[in-house]
Amino acid sequence: MNWRYTLLFVILALFMSGCSLVRPDTAGDSGSASRRIAELESRIADLEAYIASLENQNGAALIQPGLISEDVGADVDPLVSVVERRDGCPGFVCAQIQVNTDGSYYSTRVYQKDSTGRLIPEDLATIIRAMNSGDYEAILATNFTGICVPEKEDAEYAFTLYVGTRQIDLSNCTQDLSGNPEPIQTIRSVLDSYGYTIQL
Length: 200
Hints:
- With 200 residues, this protein is an alpha+beta fold.
- Helix content is 36%, strand content 20%.
- It has a six-stranded antiparallel beta sheet.
- The longest helix has 29 residues, at 30-58.
């Protein structure tokens, strides 16, 4: 069974047990109610520890919201960055993520806490392989022919890729990325597994 469903059942069980916190036969026993509350708090603490262990096992969600680690981005070269622009955000920048060559990443999203973390080695290697094999001349030769106005209702995703000594700038408002070409497809897939979704 998926661990998220297990977690849902556990939370439901805690809620149901909390509903019977003060039973008719113990309504006058404040000591019994206090013991019941202490028991629930202990079970919640166990549940939080269980969630943390599941996240570590999956290699994802190793994000520390609101914490900007000093070693993320410090003396490390960027590998890829993605900026989401659309109306309704300060300066039309709604979200941004940067992944560095050592796998560390830093993401921001308007009205949410910043997040830092590190890709597992397999995911980092997957992105690097895809970037090294991308046909950038073919992608850059395409043109987006629709309407893309981030200042109104459209969303622009601007990719900056660092491949060798090259800096390659791609945008779904400039190039035709609707076919999800590599390495865009791989970048989207990996970042999505870390909670950063790119909807082209």
